[in-house]
Amino acid sequence: MSDSLKRVRIIASKEIIEFVRDWRTLLATILIPLVLFPALFIILPLILQSEAAELEALELDVVIQGDVHEDLVSALNDDKIIVIIEQLPSDIANLSDPGPDEQRLRNGEIDAVLRMQVSGNNTWNYSILQLSTSEYSSQARSRILTHLWAWESEVVNRSLLEKGLDPDTTLDPVKWDGSITTADTATSGEQAGMILSLFIPMVLAIWTASSAMQPAIDMTAGERERGTLEALLCLPCSRIELLTGKWLAVAGITAVSVGLQVVGLIFAITYLASSSFIAIPAMSISSILLIAAAVILFAIMVVAFELALAMKAHSVKEAGSLLAPSIILIIFPALFTQVINLDGIESWWFAIPLVNVLLALRELLLDRIIIEHVVIWALSSMFYAFVAAWFASRQFKREDLVASLS
What was the pLDDT predicted at 404? Predict the structure, then answer.
């Protein structure tokens, strides 16, 4: 091993050891990535399912005003709804006018109001008053509409039968071929890849940038604030060797964090696949390797850029102020790329910084390997990584790094 590589290795080892000494750092680097996706894909659906079951078990108070049909009232009573029948208020302009019932809804005295009125041609007009900011009220409205539509279907079918018509052929003359369940030629694995491509690239990009932020700040602005950077600069090593060592340390920490996040993602997808919620994405080995290459190139650029910005700061607080907006700069294009249509997309999209990696991840998750796109995003990513490294080297060569902060 050459002396230069040995010095780089020593610097990187020193930075990693210092960074992982704090147990809170280990917690953020190891535990959070491991539980992020399982919590998102497993715990959150379970909580939502529990909340939905709790709402379905509620007994709700619903007022029906105006004309009432016994079949509808009976159906509502069977669905844990306590029906209160009242006269239609005389001081309302129309059925949707809240009138005096607004305050009752806001006070939680009742959960919803169903107003019904039969017109001269035997048509039922109705309106449902609710408080949309109340879960109880929204649940009451949902149950009312379910039974109202079912009752309407019964009324229509009965009217058609009285006229001597078959409700099935009259209301549904165009039918889906019941001999097959689907006409989609995409496999379940391809459909899973489509679903995951809508948010996995964004999460990976944001997590890569956020994972590199804290170690980048600690190894640059943190060193300046503690007064240890001057001692490092006095060592028999070049500024490039110092930058390379710190870059390897930050990249290593970031790789561990992102790798653990991928492990959590694989575990979550495997769990969901076992419960038939979503299939495992169908991807070739080539797509998987290209995904790894895209993330690595993105990490090289992000780590170098964040090191450069953090080195410009004189304190940890100032570095945090400089790097915090970088997450926002990632979120906006990440959200933007989710709505771009990949079918027939122009090749120049794959040359735009950050957007190129996000689009590449989306295509690869769909197991689409388009050579032209791969060449463009790979070359452009390497160029942006080189520019970021050059910018970082410029910051590490500044003479004012040894100046006092006082």
Answer: 47
pLDDT score at 49: 78
pLDDT at 247 over 90: no
Mean pLDDT of the 246-263 span: 80
**Predicted local confidence at residue 273, as pLDDT:** 67
Task: Say if residue 265 is exposed, middle or buried (CB neighbours under 10 Å; 0-12, 13-18, 19+).
Answer: buried
Q: How many helices (H) and strands (E) does the chain have?
A: 17, 4
pLDDT given for residue 279 in this prediction: 67
Give Cα separations from 326 to 237, 265, 393 (angstroms).
31, 24, 19
pTM: 0.70
Alpha-carbon gap, residue 316 to 160, rounded angstroms: 76
For 343-359, what is each residue's pLDDT tens digit? 888 889 999 888 888 88
User: For 125-134, 184-193, 372-381, which range has the lowest pLDDT when averaged over its residues?
Assistant: 184-193
Tell me which residue of 85, 95, 91, 88 sits closest to 62, measured CA to CA: 85
- Amino acid 97 reads D
Tokens of 290: 């290209």
- The long-range contacts involving 21-27, CB below 8 angstroms and separated by at least 24 positions, are 25/214
Residue 53's alpha-carbon distances to 48, 50, 57, 136, in angstroms, are 9, 5, 6, 13
Pairing mode of beta strands 124-129, 112-118 = antiparallel
Q: Contacts by 342-349 with C-beta closer than 8 Å and gap 24+? A: 342/366, 342/368, 347/372, 347/373, 347/376, 348/376
Query: What's the CA gap between 343 and 340, in Å, rounded?
Result: 9
Higher-confidence residue: 93 or 280? Answer: 93
3-state DSSP assignment of residue 93: coil
| Cα–Cα distance for residue pair 195/371, rounded to 1 Å | 23
What backbone phi and psi angles, to 5 degrees, belong to 117? Answer: -150, 130
**Sign of the alpha-carbon dihedral angle for 307, 312, 315, 317:** negative
Q: Which helix (H) or strand (E) holds 128?
A: strand 124-129
Tell me the three state secondary structure of residue 62: strand
Backbone angles phi, psi at 69, to 5 degrees: -110, 130
C-alpha 79, offset from chain centre: 35
Beta strands in 72-111 (DSSP E): 81-86
At 405, the pLDDT band (50, 70, 90 cuts) reads: very low
